[in-house]
Amino acid sequence: MEQKNTWETYNEQQLEALEELASEYKEFLDEGKTERECVDLIVNAAEQKGYRDIQTVIKEGGSLKTGDKVYAVCMNKSVAMFRIGARPMAEGMNILGAHIDSPRLDIKQKPFYEDGGFAYLDTHYYGGVKKYQWVAIPLALHGVIVKKDGTTVEVNVGENEDDPVFFVSDLLIHLAQEQLEKKASKVIEGEALDIIVGNKPFIWGKDDEEKGEGDKKKKKKNAKEAVKKGILEILKNTYGVEEEDFLSAELEVVPAGKARDAGFDRSMILAYGQDDRVCAFTSLKAMLDVEETSRTACCLLVDKEEIGSVGATGMQSRFFENTVAEVMNLTGEYSELNVRRCLASSCMLSSDVSSAYDPTYAASFDKKNVAYLGGGMVFNKFTGSRGKSGSNDANAEYLAHIRRIFDEGKINFQTAELGRVDLGGGGTIAYILALYGMNVIDSGVAVLNMHAPWEATSKADVYEAKRGYEVFLKEADL
């Protein structure tokens, strides 16, 4: 079957809409480099469109009817949105699900140390990364520090032009003969991914003498870690935090810099975190733009997918199930049986990225069954690895239904696998929702350089994904 290039199908009006969406998407990527930042953006956008916090509705003793819109947030890292449809929820929902966490470096709880005249922050990488890709590039620090009194201090350093940036050092090529003989997985070890945050020692002054901190013993003690002390003084003066406060901090190290157009033709977007924020953004936009629907529409954006969907904010938690129960209670439909009927009768697109064909590494792909940049949104009937281990493997009947509604909606789409059969594989949240017995299929956008600090997508695929998700929310019903 011949695969059309999506760009060839657009008229001038669609090209304008595509560029407008791409601009919004780049802003989303720039402002949402962590899960918490994404949730803030999502909630703000939802409230502007008339969505209400479900906890507010509950406290006010309210109820929900057709057309009402609510959202629920879990620990500032996951969010679920609902637009109540005309039909009873027990007959099922149409669900868009994606994740908002991305591979990165996390700061450890006891991170500060000094060595060789440098102050460091110790890190632990998060998700599947090629560790050597994270050295010698500018890095930013995002997150929160929560003090014992409950005060939350937000940190965002490295994104503004006048901000300092941080980096992981690499061995100079002149001395790298032994390093270059190592396997790629060993060239940079996980414990070597510590970021350099300073080099200037703390200078004792008159103020320190007046505070009684200038005696010889203390000078001698602090001289050993004078650079570290200098950094801690800066943090204390800037944020009002002490070294101990890092015990209750969540700080993420991410590539510094904004999302950019890529290529002379500006057809692509190069940015950090497009796995899976490209699907989260397009799902959100579809959810906000969709008009009245027959079935209740739902957009579920969760945390922790990159490390197995575990924890209270991951898909394996009961957050979504509990929220569905609360929504059904507000619509007057709640019973344990109705919740189970609702979930089992739902249709879902597990919206996650797929690997894009890379001619440089052609041997890693099955060219007949791979996604191409510019080929439209992607459907993966199954994911998993090798013998489909860990795969959802959607039913043929459901895939036929999706094909029909997308063809009728004139949505450009392609089907794909992640790579060659015995080479590797990957997973999504699809198999977790499938546990309820609902129809689920993986869908999303093809990504080049997946899990690298800078990933590439096609603007055309982003646009088609948003259009496709809207059609799904309106028309899916199997």
Give the structural class: alpha/beta
Taking the alpha carbons of the first and last residues, their distance comes to 27 Å
Query: In the CATH hierarchy, what is the superfamily of the largest domain?
Result: Zn peptidases
Average pLDDT number: 93
Polypeptide structure, described:
- It is a single chain.
- It contains 13 helices and 22 strands.
- With 478 residues, the chain is α/β, with parallel strands linked by helices.
- The chain folds into two domains: 6-102 and 272-475, Zn peptidases (Aminopeptidase, 3-Layer(aba) Sandwich), CATH 3.40.630.10; 104-255, Roll (Aminopeptidase i, Domain 2), CATH 2.30.250.10.
- The strands form five sheets. Strands 1-2-3-13-4-14-20-16-18 form a nine-stranded mixed sheet, with helices on both faces. A six-stranded antiparallel sheet has the order 8-7-10-5-6-9, with helices on one face.
- α9 crosses α10 (336-344).
